[in-house]
Amino acid sequence: MDDRNTRFDRRTALTAAATALAAGTVGLTAPAALAAPAVRRFPKGFRWGASTAGYQIEGNSVNADLWVMEHVKPQTFAELSGDADDSYHRWREDIAVMKAIGLNAYRFSIEWSRIEPERGEFSQAQLDYYRRFIAALREAGIEPVVTFYHVAAPRWFAAAGGWLNPESPDLFARYCDRAARQLAAEIGVACTINEPQVGLTYRIMPQSQAYFGKLDEAQQVAHAAAARAMGSDRFVTMNHPDIKGMTPQLMAAHEKGFAAIKAARGDLPTGVTLNLVDFQPANEGSPYGELRKAAYGPWLEVAARAGDFIGVQTYRQVRIPGAGAKLPDFPDMPYVDRAHLEELIKQPEALRNTVEYVHKETGKPIFVTENGLETPDDRRREWYIPQVLKQLHDAIDAGVPVMGYMHWSLIDNFEWLQGFKPQFGLASVDRKTFARKLKPSAAVYRQIIRANAV
Ligand code: BGC
Q: Which domains does the chain show, CATH number per domain?
């Protein structure tokens, strides 16, 4: 990796800040570099990190169910994941990026489809691979925060009915047991399942009904094509429309996975990570409270029962209209609508709201395992990071125990159905050479981490 790309100095940060100011973007204030001296101090030992997921960065996840979905016709992906960021080979470059930003924690996922490529067949070499990566993180002073399942499952699992299969919780627990027995000793924090309720939440939200109506039809067709390609009766991935049918198994899988990880190492903080849209009222009579309950209530119960913490992942605030009022439909997923983005970035309080809500409902410590901004204009990210962290600090001040903040994402990556176009990274990745290059927002984040204050 080009070392120059990962080096900053104060001047770089100030120049970036000045550029943002000069741009005079409406509604944006000066980044932390030029603001008054930092006053909000974070707790000692606060985890400062960034997040990624295996399928989105490793590349060539050929045993995964989504790889099958990408290669059938018709399919629902904007482009192929291919080599992704080639992090499978370039993890040392990723660690160099983490060090340049000054992270003390990194959240990533171990890939079930690599560890158990066929049902009941576990790869020791692959477990060793992740063990080496975890050891290298430790060596760099970075705490590994490990997600056991982040959207992509093995293709054999999907062909056996995925999360609609009654055996699925036990299959997941067996994988957690095998992986945890070998890896748990050096892991800092474990997450069982990433956002098992995101599909439910988005299908409950009135503004996204039309979007999912269309998408679900296409998903039915694509999943049927995948079943044909695999020669199986069915093929069920996390993107399958029947998220309601999958939910009981996902809940049982979390509980059994949690138990398996804790059996391997009882003192390892373990929990599930949830996608929390900040539902707020659009006007009087808004049923936002009921919607919240429907979207989150049952999962919060499970997460609190089997969890040392709750992972909160917030990207947006959505206002829910009351009777008689109609708000525009949700823009195309995920965040490509510019006008909507303008709205979103003015709402860094969304994270504070969800953090406080989840803590109030569960009494559990909160870990912000994802939060970030999709934008090709990094000046917005420079603005957003200090703003959202001020809000998070207010939640801490208000009494919420917060274990840490993992920015999504460390590097630009494969954004699922949308392909590589959406950019969330603190660093960019050249699509031909895979060279990582820090963005100015990484300097803003680094300054906050160094001060442990914003
Ligand atoms: C997911 C990530 C995704 C991010 C941005 C989260 O819902 O966990 O995998 O890339 O949002 O869309």
A: 3-27+39-451 (3.20.20.80)
